[in-house]
Amino acid sequence: MGRQVLDGVTLNKMFIAGSILLNQKKHYIDSLNVFPVPDGDTGTNMSLTLNFAVQQLDTVQENTVGKVANTIAAGSLMGARGNSGVILSQLFRGFSKSLEEKEKITGEEFAKALQEGVKTAYKAVMKPVEGTMLTVAREAADAAFRKAEQGTDFLALMEVFLSQARETLEKTPQLLPVLKQAGVVDAGGEGLCVIYEGFLKSLQGFDFDVEVEEEAQPVREVLEGSIDEDITFQYCTELLVKGRELQSEVLQEKLMDQGDSLLVVGEGEILKVHVHTNNPGIVLDICIQFGQLSQIKIDNMKEQHREFVQEETQPEHSAEPFDAFFPYIKTGEEAEPAIQIIAVSPGDGISEIFTSMGVSLIIEGGQTMNPSTEDFLQAIEKSRAEKIIILPNNKNIILAAEQSRDLSPKEVMVVPSKTIPQGISALMACEPVQKEFADNVESMKEALSQVKTGQVTYAVRDSTYEGKAIRNGSVIGLQENNLTVVGDYPEEVVKSVIQRIYEVSDEIITLYYGNNVTEDEAQSLAQKLQEAYPDAEVEYYRGGQPLYYYFISVE
User: Which of 147, 158, 280, 303 has the fewest other C-beta atoms within 10 Å?
Assistant: First the structure.
């Protein structure tokens, strides 16, 4: 007779196995993204999300099923990147909720937990679409439950679970026409199948001899001069509090007088605490009244700063920064306005534009390097304002931004900008001094529809989309994230995109050129556009973004 009960140690190994296999296959999963443009990041996002969660398992002291599942849920919540990563974190969140306090579980309990994960994930997505990873998760969980009701061991249960996931994955092109046109299955669904395959291989005793890759560390912020005298609270104290029915606002109130940069976030069963204090012992004494403490980390910030200044005066950039997939946060001179704005930027030129328009904190990121929920929370914490507006500027980053909004004790609103031009248009509508917070958010949201966006990039594989034959290396034009033009040269594609979106009433055409376009090339193109559209004002700015030759704004 096979394994009838699953314990925490085994579940721990299953998640580790899933992350290892996902690391090995993430680039293939990336290649399944529908458009043949270099924005394939589903595998990378899911891998970074699960890696972050698995790394937290080292801190688990009680290897029960409930503790392991809770740790994975909390870790994936904080490490979630992109839509696929956020959905994955919600699957784990629902999975863990039904396993609280359980030391071991039966196959039926495991299958019910999978179904609870699916319910939670569906609720988290505003408009769930069938033919995606949600469908794969739902049908696989239902198949597992039917098998568990018949009475079976875990190995047989996981075989059915994975088999149904793969069968559903193969159906995704029939459910989503865009997948059928591109000749691929859903990338997120493939990622789930890889994780489930890791679960099964672990139960089969497969020897994983590849360690989980650690996520690249964020570039450190450059601090000018000695700020020892400016550090009022010396010890950066971080920890997790685990219990039941925990309320972040209650613990936050208790810790309010212990320092600054206080952040208490999380769900009812786990809270993450961060505070700068001169009395970390008192902080721990207060927190232990609410539950068990773990992942305690206390850093002397004065010592850290002295070591930092001695070691370097400039931030270290990776030789291949876009392979690191880890954005970093930059802050400028901050006053203390009532409202501050956090914006995601894919290039240093765009960052300079955002800063000049009043953005207080910038998270570097975009296609192929989506910021995580934790990155947004760190930026929110850095802000000196209690009211914050987030501009994601990319459709794949909106869910992570919204998740950070829900976790932060501050008043945070997300203006769901899907492109850089939309973000800039929203900033132009913002008047933080003259308008109230809610009025600013509403004005910025309205401004999103007042600008038309084009993007010009290149194909990374042969494909066909809506009857258009696309070769690897072809230049591609997107209109509001929809592929509309295929050509051989960036200049011709830019002209074609603008021709499609320009209207007689439009007054301004703006080009933001990327790091693979020279200023002379951008200036020459702008001059030609000015001749073609004499009634409009044509402007060009250095964006510095990778992958995309141009971002185009017409308004």
Answer: 303
CB atoms under 10 Å from CB of 335, counted, come to 8
Please tell me the distance from the alpha carbon of residue 68 to that of residue 59, in angstroms, as a whole number: 10
Place of tokens 């919204």: 402
Expressed in percent and rounded to 5, the helix, strand and coil fractions of the chain are 50, 20, 30
Q: Where are the beta strands (DSSP E) in 270-416?
A: 270-277, 292-300, 329-331, 339-345, 361-364, 387-391, 411-414
Assessment of whether the complete model's pTM goes beyond 0.85 = no
Distance CA 421, CA 364 (A): 16
The CATH number of 5-203 is 1.25.40.340
Q: Report strand pairing: 5-7 vs 104-106.
A: antiparallel
Successive 10-residue mean pLDDT values, the chain, 555 residues? 86 94 90 69 91 90 91 91 89 93 94 96 84 96 95 92 97 89 88 96 79 37 36 76 82 85 68 80 88 78 49 37 37 58 93 90 83 90 89 92 90 95 93 85 94 92 75 90 89 96 94 94 96 94 93 95
pLDDT, one tens digit per residue, over 315-374 is 333 333 333 333 344 444 444 557 899 999 999 999 999 998 889 899 988 776 788 898
What is the second-level CATH architecture of the domain 452-554? 2-Layer Sandwich (3.30)
Six-digit token pair at 430?
């913002």
Amino acid at 185: V
Pairing of strands 329-331, 104-106: unpaired
Place of tokens 């029960």: 64
Task: Report the topology of domain 325-447.
Answer: Rossmann fold (3.40.50)
> What string of DSSP letters covers 15-37?
HHHHHHHHHHHHHHHHTTSSSSS
Give Cα separations from 213 to 14, 29, 374 (angstroms): 16, 17, 19
Residues 82 and 397 sit within 8 Å (Cβ to Cβ): yes
Domain residue extents for the chain: 5-203, 228-311, 325-447, 452-554
Q: Please, are residues 319 and 368 in contact by the beta-carbon 8 Å criterion?
A: no
228-311 maps to which CATH number? Answer: 3.30.70.980
